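EI: anyone free to look at a 281-residue chain?
SC: sure, send it
EI:
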Amino acid sequence: MTNSTFSVLLSVYQKERPDFLRHSLESLLTQTRMPKEIIIVKDGRVGEELNNVIESFRAKQEGLLKVVGYDDNRGLGLALNFGMQHISTPYVARMDTDDVAVPTRFEEQMSFLDTHPDIDILGSSIAEFIDDPQHPLRARHVPEQHEMIRERARLSNPMNHMTVVFKRKKVVEAGGYQHAPYFEDYDLWVRMLMGGMKFHNLKRLLVLARVGNDMIGKRHGFQYTKFEAAHFRKMYGYGFINSFGLIKALMLRVPLRLLPKKLLLSIYSVILRKGNEGTTN
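SC: here you go
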């Protein structure tokens, strides 16, 4: 058994809320197993309030919090790929700036990875909340074993992105994060699966995920539909799905995005979440 070091990677942009970022960073500083470094990528200018939160944490945690970035907003995929260039550890843990990590998240995940060196990327279940992380609405589970994850990936995202810890080297080998709006993580998982890399999910609620920030609105309408269709066509181009799989994915997923928003919310809440088997995208 080894005791691998890891970094946490986050990306922040100007439209995010300072109080959400503060809560997220506080949850990282109360972990029972601490990272070697926390890398925050400023995806463009972020404004005074967000800067104040970042700088206050950097001052309190000298040497732990490292801030990198650039002036123009480039999108999540390119921001994360930029951040990856500044990682100094073999493992990288992802975290979103509006979510909350439970205190044992990194201890549980890194202990599993220390004893399962064949796993290249590890995720977990999440508990979703709107305003109060202490009162979650529901759990969102994803497939646990590699073959189940691979099968799920043909139709929907098999990982909760904000929960993953992965081997930096393997992500680089797969081509890293790329510009794929709304589907940056899903696209990377498919390329990693195509590369023979091994996945696993813990059925543990290790991240409290905020869902009240117009989650449905961000996954609705013509623009999102266009990006979703492009994503599945890309999967077809990779050879990950065949023509039947492409047609099935488009027929099952794309029409939902064009429904009235209130109806989509009803379907999402009552049907898609039934049995706590939701998807990330």
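EI: The chain has two domains: 6-216, 217-276.
SC: 👍
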